[in-house]
């Protein structure tokens, strides 16, 4: 099985690989609001809700059976560091959307997480195969501090758009804002436009 290299995604945004104002780091800093939640594979569930044809609930065993994609991606944190060439294994957002069936009036998505974190994106910005529900990083199970067992990655956005410890996604018929989007970080979060802070 091959690796899909999507580290050229910056070309779509007419930018350099290292977005403006970012510094490349080899380390992978941990940025969390709260403590890392406990993961019990027998209790864990993932739900798909809202404006869908069929609401879905997955156990960890069921989620692990979904088809995955392996991708090489860059990761840009709004606080100014970027980590290149992360190797992620995960289930793509369109794969999940396809299984639930997206309602015609769905326009937006809210991601939820085990620590209460939320983050939002327009539906069209989620319907890309680079938006992954990741369970492996660089050949190992995703470390719990980085969101294990499952997190979202959004290589076209600052990393706060990717919920660690993700446990559900809700399809919405109107935009809503997540945790940081209500508290001053940009709703759009385009690293190549340096959309770091909200202007409202
Ligand atoms: N559930 C959850 N997801 C989260 C956060 C969080 O506090 N809780 N922090 C966000 C922020 S601000 C960033 S920069 C990235 C950091 O990911 P990392 O800790 O793996 O570097 O996760 C994002 N996702
Ligand atoms: Mo962040």
TrEMBL record:
Residue stretches making up the Oxidoreductase molybdopterin-binding domain: 35-180
InterPro entries membership: OxRdtase_Mopterin-bd_dom, OxRdtase_Mopterin-bd_sf
Entries under Pfam families matching the protein: Oxidored_molyb
Chain intervals for the UniProt region annotation (Disordered): 1-24
CDD domains registered for this protein in UniProt: arch_bact_SO_family_Moco
Family matches, as PANTHER family: OXIDOREDUCTASE MOLYBDOPTERIN-BINDING DOMAIN-CONTAINING PROTEIN, PROTEIN-METHIONINE-SULFOXIDE REDUCTASE
Full protein name: Oxidoreductase molybdopterin binding protein
Organism name: Halosimplex carlsbadense 2-9-1
């Amino acid at each position: 099985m091959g690796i899909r290299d999507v580290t050229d995604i910056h070309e779509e945004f007419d930018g350099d690989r290292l977005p403006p104002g970012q510094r490349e780091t080899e380390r992978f800093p941990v940025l969390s609001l709260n403590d890392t939640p406990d993961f019990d594979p027998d209790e864990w569930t993932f739900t798909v809700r809202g404006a869908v044809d069929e609401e879905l609930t997955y156990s960890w065993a069921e989620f692990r059976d979904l088809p995955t994609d392996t991708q090489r991606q860059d990761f840009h944190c709004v606080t100014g560091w970027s980590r290149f060439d992360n190797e992620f294994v995960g289930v793509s957002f369109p794969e999940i959307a396809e299984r639930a069936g997206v309602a015609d009036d769905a326009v937006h998505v809210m991601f939820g997480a085990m620590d209460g974190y939320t983050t939002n994106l327009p539906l069209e910005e989620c319907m890309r195969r680079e938006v992954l529900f990741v369970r492996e990083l660089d050949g190992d199970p995703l470390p719990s501090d980085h969101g294990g067992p499952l997190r979202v990655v959004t290589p076209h956005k600052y990393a706060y758009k990717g919920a660690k410890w993700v446990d559900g996604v809700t399809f919405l018929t109107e935009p809503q804002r997540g945790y940081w989007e209500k508290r001053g970080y940009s709703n759009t979060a385009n690293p190549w436009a340096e959309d770091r802070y909200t202007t409202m």
